[in-house]
Amino acid sequence: MKKILLLTLLTMMVMAFGQEKMELISGNFQALKDQKEVNVELKFDNVLFMKENFTEAQYLENRKEDVLANPKRGKEAWKQWIGEWERYKKEEYINHFIKGLGKYYKDVTFKKDGSAQYTLIVDTKWLLPGWHGGLIVMEAQISGTIKLVEAGNPSVVLAEVALNQFDKFIQSKDEVMEYGRIATVYESTGRYLGKEIRKSVK
Question: What span is annotated as the signal peptide, if there is one (predicted)?
Answer without folding.
Answer: 1-18
